[in-house]
Amino acid sequence: MTQSKRTVLIAGNWKMNNDLPEGAKLASELVQALPEIPSGVEVLVCPPTVELKFVGCHGGILSSSIKLGAQNVHWEPSGAYTGETSVAMLQSVEVSYCIIGHSERREYFHETDEDQNKKAKALVAGGIVPVFCCGEPEEVREAGTYIDYVCAQVKAGLLGLELSSPNQLVVAYEPIWAIGTGKTATADDAQEVCAAVRVQLAELFGQEMADGIRVLYGGSAKPGNIAELVAKPDVDGALVGGASLNARDFASMVLKAGA
Ligand code: PEP
């Protein structure tokens, strides 16, 4: 049983794109393009770490209704972790969400489910909402074992996490074969896996909590397919890469998600 009143989340992952002035320009274009966010929709942008403060302040995100998110975090509070960023550092620049477990970090930086588990716990303890990514590679999709694969990631990544509210966690199902490729999963494919993720969340956190946790789809989401995706009962929004780098496209997705 799913709950129909979850707030749709449209989240932009800017990845390693745009220098500081370009990031601030994109942010202010987005703020201008979205003077009002449709009711029932929440908007999030996740710029590169070095741009969080500037995009938040000079780009106008923090004085708008758009939320600010980070793309990565370290679970330790401080210490000799060259190049890393702590939860407290993200708090100090008013970040409210943080992407973890993105397939690019799992693949290029060899991050494991255990790493995601520590990150998720540190973020929730610090009052920042993890956007926990999961998703199967193409060979797993072709072998037909994708539901088991994704649910195992969710279980290992979130086991032992303590939640007092469903708003403390977001999960993003991102099939790797659809990320940045232009190959979108169909809305039915997205629904099938997002519903299975919710069953796994119910096993971890109980049915009531699972019914309130947002499960997003990610992978070549764009203005042309967002409405169909969010119309599915278990798809509560999208994590958007490429299309989030264009203010007009991203704003159009927000408006279509609220229509
Ligand atoms: C992503 O990397 O999170 C993503 C969904 O990218 P894209 O929208 O470009 O496929």
Q: Can you tell me about this structure?
A:
This protein has 259 residues and is an alpha/beta fold. It has one domain: Aldolase class I (TIM Barrel), CATH 3.20.20.70. Helices cover 41% and strands 15% of the residues. Helix 5 packs across helix 7. It is globular and about 45 Å long. It binds phosphoenolpyruvate. Phosphoenolpyruvate binds next to strand 8.
Summarize this entry quickly.
The protein has helices at residues 20-33, 52-57, 87-92, 103-108, 113-125, 138-143, 146-158, 187-205, 207-212, 226-230, 247-258, and strands at residues 8-13, 41-46, 67-70, 97-100, 129-134, 170-173, 214-218, 237-240. It is an alpha/beta fold. Strand 1, helix 1 and strand 2 form a beta-alpha-beta unit.
Beta content: 15-25%
Enumerate how many helices there are, as a single number.
11
Write out the strand line-up for the largest beta sheet, numbering strands in chain order.
1-2-3-4-5-6-7-8
CATH superfamily: Aldolase class I
What are the low-pLDDT stretches, counting only 5+ consecutive residues below 50?
none
| Global geometry | globular
Q: Please describe the biggest sheet, giving its number of strands, its sense, and whether it closes into a barrel.
A: 8 strands, parallel, barrel
Total discrete domains: 1
CATH class categorisation: Alpha Beta
- Find the count of extended strands (DSSP E, 2+ residues): 8
Bound molecules: phosphoenolpyruvate
What is the CATH topology classification name?
Answer: TIM Barrel
Order of helices and strands: EHEHEHEHHEHHEHHEHEH
What would the average pLDDT be, to the nearest integer?
A: 96
End-to-end gap? 24 Å
Rg over alpha carbons: 17 Å
**Name given to the CATH architecture:** Alpha-Beta Barrel
Which structural class do the helices and strands define? alpha/beta
